Amino acid sequence: MAAELVRGQNHPLWQNRIEIRISADVPVVAGASLADESGRVRGTDGVAHPGAPTLPGIEVSRQAAAEHRLAVDLDAMPAAVHRVSVLIALPATPGAPPRFGALAAPRAAVTGLDGTEVAGYTLIGLDAESAVVALELYRRQGAWKIRAVGQGYAEGLTGLLADQGLPGAAELARGIEQAVARGLARAVPARTADTDRSRCTAAPVTGADLPDTASAAGSPYDAQTPDGTAGRHATSDGPAESEPAPGDAGRLPASGGPGAPATATSSGGTGGPIDYTHPKRRQASRPPAPETPAPADGPAPPVAGDAAGWAMDERLYNQVWGMFEDLARCTAAYRSAVDFAESRMEKELDQVLSDPRSRLGSAGDAAREAVQARQARLVDQARAALDRDLAQLTAESEVVEPALPPAYARWDNPVWHGYRVPTESPMAVRLGDLHLPESAPLRIPMLVRLPLERGLWIDSGVPDASLFEEAGELRHLALQTAVALAARLLAVHPAGEFGVQVVDPAGAGASAFAPLTGAGVLDAPPAAGAAGVAGVLGRLTERVDLVQMAVRGGASDALPPGLDTSRQLLIVHDFPHGFDDRAVTQLRYLADEGPDVGVHLLLVADRDDAAAYGPLLDPLWRSLMRLTPVPDDHLADPWVGHAWTYEPGLVPPGSQVLQQVLARVATARTKHM
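The structure assignment produced for this chain is given below.
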């Protein structure tokens, strides 16, 4: 899966023969510079450009074009080359736009020779700049890595090349412009603008902190992210895909408000507010509501539902997963900036210790203190950018959370007090909350699309079970989590379109299931004993078989008249107690085949209890989405590699909201029958 990078983030490179693909709204000039270990380009023969398109290990286009493919063979790079910078510039020709801020954000992608994308980076946040370092390939401990840079220069190619320490930068820039002017007539026509790309700027790390790095438009190591106005994460059921947000596989804030226009970054190195125009979000800024006018010089306030979609339900869904994306990106940028600061400090300390004259005495102590101070300053700047982004996301969360419909809302949301049984099914449901260590107070709703594409597993044997005083306390909490999820699923579906069945072989969950049984919302009393288990599994297996045959044969009208075709949720408690080999096989069958025909599994179990089955049940556990009854950082995000902490959506202690909602569900079910 391709990685979508943010500014300053790096990514490993597993192959040395690659292509770098540049796409822009208008013809641009693409080039590359080859630098030594210190980041300096030693001469004009270290720059590949349209006038000299081929260097050892790299070849660039001979003309300006809206799309470029740069061929790179890292194995052929000279040993002295430690850094390859990919350069993009606007041609200085009549009619060409003078700055990148007037265009849709260009994009750079690293691909294999077969076209498979390894990593991509959209150069958001550019304004007055006419030349930019897009990507950087660099050696680290004998291997090559990619870094998203995005450092722009208002002085154009001259400023960019001069910043890389190149003698005669102005003369080379003029030579490149002349070569471009000669070949511009052969340029590829500009493609249609991609309005789904995001734009943002970030507070830069100044040139004083990063030697040999221009401060003209910010540093490539800034901790920056997309702001709090939403877009979809790339996965339809949670934080598992990339392009990021549920709803679209994957994709997962700063001082710029939702939809606010990007603020120019001055040549002095100060960054303006971040503007986040995410995929699936509205591209134009929204006027503030009359009762909450925005300051004349400030960003528009957050607005609930400020995302693309046909209905408010879809807009809120997209906005929530846009917030997830924002938090993932800003945290990734912060962590990358901290890693960079740490690695640079280690390198500088090694240099200090390698010199006997500065190793000991007051000079050595002063050098070490200066190195540590620079590292602390970089970390503080990254944290300040993260705090600014989190403040924007928190402001958006405070607006969005109260506006969520019951399917997306927490149990303490006032929307439940006015609950009415819906007439249509929602597009998604909330399973709990997600957060990261750097932003513990901020919670992002974990939404998954409906109908559920996979079963759920409430793990009653999480590693910190020893923290509970009584052995059964954690198991009871797991059952409460399952009951809250089942009640929510019943509440958000129209009457008669969703049913719940319970398998409780030993009857150990009777007290936890009391809200469901007392309200009369179960299709049948909880099944107990081996016979009860076999009966429920047999009926559901038969239902799956019949519906599958009808669907595949195009004969849905041939189903038996008494067959209940509404969606079903099977809650299995205390697995594998009461299950024989046949029942285990049927359960695996329902987990694999049931979701496609409306039978969903909610398993409440400790995996260690089923250890006697060995690897036989491994496919079952892998097929289910694991949730926990207590906060646990087990949800992996393959988009940026975060481990998200999941918190279950439990009913507040002492609240009667669950009983009130279930009573209304039961009344609606009675009228429907």
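Interim note for the steering committee: The chain is about 30% helix and 20% strand. Residues 185-296 have pLDDT under 50 and may be disordered.
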